[in-house]
Amino acid sequence: MTTKKIKAQAQGRNGQIDFDIAVDGNKITDLQVTKSSETPAIFDQVFGKLKQNVLDEQSFAVDAVSGASIMTQAMLDAGQKALKDNDIKPAQSQNKPEHKSVTLDVDVAVVGSGMAGLMAASRALAMGKKVLVLEKNGYLGGATALNGSNVVGTGSKVSARLLGAEAQKDSASRLVKDIARECRGTNYPMLSDLLANNIGQAVDFITEFADLQYQKAETQTVEHSVDRQIEMPSESSYEVITKVAKAFEAKGGKILLDARVEELLKNDSDKLVSLVAEGKHQTTTVNFKSLILAAGGWGARDYREHKTNIPYYGPMTSTGDYFDFAKNMNLVTRNLDWYKVYPHGLEVEPGIAKLTTYSTKEATDMGAIFVNHAGKRIVNESAPYTHFRDAIAAQKDQTAYIVIDERIWQRFYALLLKYGFTAEEIAGYFALEGKQSPVLVKGNLAEVAQKAGIDYANLQKTLADYTAAVKTGRDTEFGRSAKFMHEYEGDTYYVIEQKLRFCTTLGGYETTPQMELLDTELEPITNFYAAGEIVGGANGKDSMPSMMNSWSYASGFVAGTAAAYNTNAD
């Protein structure tokens, strides 16, 4: 027999997925993806699992992967069709999994495998505890896997090494002051202090625990009053997640995927002591001494329930399941209508956005301007993100456009490809010719104005006025710094739509300084802790760049420490 490849094509969450099925006679020997627009941090994990299941079972009639069911089921259906069309009939495995019930006894159980959960679990494990992480999806990382990896290193040995004299200017009190300024005093001081005073320890701990290598972040955003942002060489949180998870398991921790918590149980003394989690083929009862809830936010739930008209760019698995399974714990919440809204996004399908933050930041540093439908500038393009957000929100259609030349476009495009877009996607957007979102158009100034629906006469005048300001070094309209003002080059322009977007929820449950969850009487609940996005207030109503990752680090570190100590109480 000789191996041949059969072509298959599926429609994934973000676009077309092409893959080859290698067969030797009637045996499936390999699967290889040749084209995909899916988020790599998720796709790489779920495809590996799907491939192994197909090869093991010699069939595409296997389970879709939890949390990525649309994408994986589409691939399974496409695979089945391709085999049928080519009259390939593998000998299917007869080992059909039976549903089983399992009981596990641990010191610390952690719900959620994002950075807050993995940090908490790793910290408790390092303190000698038996630790289990439960994740409802069939892959690791939660919303963290979709983020950049930048965090602040305030007070850390890592920052002292990477940032030198700049790190000496930083302090916990300075970070808290920046937080309060950026969110206009809406932060909860106790949690902000907790973040600022523990982020350095958390960074140093996880660096050593997982043998991480940080670097000074490529972008030091203006919201921070001193250079303090650090990141992974890949600039992706997926690198952090995979390395921390690998170290956690290598050192004796256990991770259980496809384990959706359904119920929290108390003993006769009304103390929380166990939970029940369901998976496709297993019901798991976990007995614990401490439980840490690190299950992320609920942005997808609010998007689906139309509680906001701002496009959503987060994982569709951020559904706030704990509002149901933890209902019997009578937890107190606050500010559940707070979202972290960013100004840099493309609405790639109705209500769904993808971020262009890195591309847009670079473009504005290179001199690009923001205009509205009327063709007029709307903001100091080099101001903090909140200025962009408020300026876009003030537009009638909550839409703005960034105007760039060929020089800027080349850098903009490179960063789009680096952060979540494919060349095929971008080409598809240009092919729309501005007739629907997302608007990306190219041509001379008159052409791009016409395609994007921008007033050409005003746009022409705006560019002329801006060119004059560049030459004098004085932006009398918005006071933009001369170092970010550069004259446009050539006659080719690109106009790119920019809309608001949100992923992160900023409200949530309330805790003590030890990250113990509080009930509606504001009393701490025995054995129950929380970390990450699920706890609201540290960053107030508007977090600075890097600060949600930083909150997951610091809160996870504190929760893991407290939960570990709590196991000694008996």
Describe the fold and architecture:
Helix content is 35%, strand content 22%. The strands form eight sheets. The protein has a six-stranded mixed β-sheet with strand order 10-6-5-14-26-25, covered by helices on one side. Helix 11 (357-365) runs antiparallel to helix 13 (406-418). It contains 17 helices and 26 strands. The relative contact order is 0.15. With 570 residues, the protein is of the alpha+beta class.
* Share of β-strand residues: 15-25%
> What number is the mean pLDDT?
93
Radius of gyration: 25 Å
Number of strands: 26
Q: How many helices does DSSP assign? A: 17
Task: Please give the share of residues in helix.
Answer: 25-40%
Q: What are the defining features of this structure?
A:
570 residues, alpha+beta, six-stranded mixed beta sheet, four-stranded mixed beta sheet, 17 helices, 22% strand, globular
Give a brief outline of the structure.
With 570 residues, the chain is of the alpha+beta class.
Give the SSE map.
Blueprint: E1 3-11, E2 16-24, E3 27-35, H1 40-57, H2 69-85, E4 100-105, E5 108-111, H3 115-126, E6 131-134, E7 151-152, H4 157-163, H5 165-169, H6 172-182, H7 189-209, E8 215-216, E9 229-231, H8 237-250, E10 254-256, E11 260-266, E12 272-278, E13 282-287, E14 290-293, H9 299-304, H10 322-325, E15 333-334, E16 339-342, E17 345-349, E18 352-355, H11 357-365, E19 369-371, H12 385-393, E20 399-405, H13 406-418, H14 423-431, E21 440-443, H15 445-452, H16 456-472, E22 493-499, E23 501-505, E24 508-509, E25 516-518, E26 524-530, H17 547-566
Parallel strand pairs: 4-13, 5-6, 5-14, 6-10, 14-26
Antiparallel strand pairs: 1-2, 2-3, 7-9, 8-9, 11-12, 12-13, 15-24, 16-23, 17-18, 19-20, 20-22, 21-22, 25-26
Helix pairs in contact: 3-7, 3-8, 3-17, 6-7, 7-17, 11-13
